[in-house]
Design a protein that fits this description.
Mean pLDDT: 80
Oligomer: single chain
Order of helices and strands: EEEHHH
Helix content: 40-55%
Distance between the termini: 54 Å
Number of strands: 3
Number of domains: 2
Strand order of the largest sheet: 2-1-3
Shape: elongated
Low-confidence stretches: none
Strand content: 5-15%
């Protein structure tokens, strides 16, 4: 789609749907310079936001667990949909941790950490 107009220094100044007004060079949508101009500089489709979101969800889950343990929040205070999602994530994490090696278990211990 984009025909580009460049600054005298060679940087993209503007994108255009049609050729004209100094915008006579065509670059495909996925070209690195076009992506950088529109603010997509990451390597993935979402610029790494999926990883950041997943990490942040983990933080929120840990905060909720801490509030429940300290009796500041009851799980029943949350909407049923939120409860179901928390229980699903907790169950998934427990299943994952059971299948992974426990590198920090005390020697001779069979306890799961």
């Amino acid at each position: 789609m984009p025909y580009i107009h460049r600054t005298p220094a060679g940087a993209i100044d503007s994108l255009h749907r049609q050729r004209g007004a100094g915008a006579d060079e065509f670059l495909p949508d996925h070209h690195a310079e076009v992506q950088a101009f529109v603010g997509r500089t990451g390597t993935g489709d979402d610029d790494g936001y999926s990883k950041l979101d997943a990490d942040f969800v983990r933080v929120l889950e840990d905060v909720i667990d801490t509030l429940i343990v300290k009796n500041i929040l009851n799980i029943t205070d949350l909407p049923p949909e939120a409860q179901a999602k928390l229980f699903a994530r907790k169950g998934f994490r427990e299943r994952q941790s059971q299948s992974s090696p426990h590198l920090f278990a005390p020697s001779g211990s069979t306890d799961v950490i």
